[in-house]
Fold this sequence. Notes:
The protein is mostly helical. It has 6 helices and 4 strands; from the N terminus they run E-E-H-H-H-H-E-H-H-E.
Amino acid sequence: GINAEYMGLKNGKRTVDVVAETPSEFEAWLMGLASALSAEPTWGHPLDISDEEGINKLSAEEADACSKHHITPQLYLKLKDLVLERRAEVQKHMKQYNNNMEKVYKAVGGIHPPSIDERGALLMTKGELRYLANIDIFRTCVIWKSFARQLLIYDPNYKPPTPNPTY
């Protein structure tokens, strides 16, 4: 396990500095530490997004999550648009092919057959969203959960990146 005495204190909180040669190595360390400690990584301070382009298009909850987790409004809104476009594309083909999902899958492609649940949410895994976002899994999960709360996406197999997430 992780020996907590090797971790320092910063602003009254335990901290650990991680240096890695690649972003994927850094993320692997972070995932391991987060899992071992049952804690999510946090930024030292919120990101000031008050003057960022697109801030006026975010709800208060979305803006707070973006600031807390260092996600720019532009990235958040770009991802939201991509999800909405994908959902519209799947819905269009579902109508065109009378819900024949085999034909819809051939038309829209993807890593799994498309699906829209009874609430209108598009099946999208956090891995798919991460591929679109090109950011770490922790921030991807913040965005994924926000979109899921808005009934834009769903995944019956979703699991948070840490055992006891606080976001």
